[in-house]
Write a structure and sequence with these properties.
Length: 254
Amino acid sequence: MFQFSFKKYFNAGLLAGGIMLLAASCKKDVPVAQFPASLTIVNGINDNTSFFTTYFGTTRPKYYIYLSYVGSGRSLDYATDKMDLPLTLFRNFDTLQPKPFVVNNLKLEPGGIFTHFVYGSPTQVKQKTVKEQLPSRSLNDSVANLRIINLFENRPIDVLQLEPEAKVMVSNLAYEQLTGFIKVPTTMAVKNYRFEVRDHATGVKLATLSEENILSGTASPNNNWLFRARTMLVTGTWSSESVFSVRATSIGHF
């Protein structure tokens, strides 16, 4: 009787111990969860014609036709689990040059949201990475959040909102500077947004940006603006009050 009980409890103990070891082993093998980083690449090259193809690798890409495209004044959204992200940009499909247009390694963080601006001229390219603190989306407030970055060749600018209400958004914004987010209404009464960019020193009108809040021919809001964070890009070159090339566009964020 004693021998039977001893064997029974001894075997039960071995089984329990095995289960505990197995659980510990399985727990050890489970990798720590890592949230991906979100990245927006912005094309702010000041000739207003250059476009990029993007590659996130360390070697020459095998098939250039599959690379993502970023138009002038536009952006590309990308999510990655690589916190030391290689970035290569080719300009205007110019993939035959020995050196690509941009080669960089971006330092990201798990769960972080980043915007990488590529700007300057085709011969003197500049880069700027911003770790974002985007405003939270509120379903109770019919507003969008808009900020402005001045990438217009060493000239300070003023930006005015003409619609839905006339007001100064920012004055004397220096080159390369980025404003904070400014709330603009997105109620059904607002049909369009219209903004005007001026040269701060001379007052010369440089560009106008127009965007729909209510889509044409519908009663539907423009979801690119509703509850979203957006950035207005002002890019271009200046020679004189009568000779300049400027464009204003806007991009959305994650």
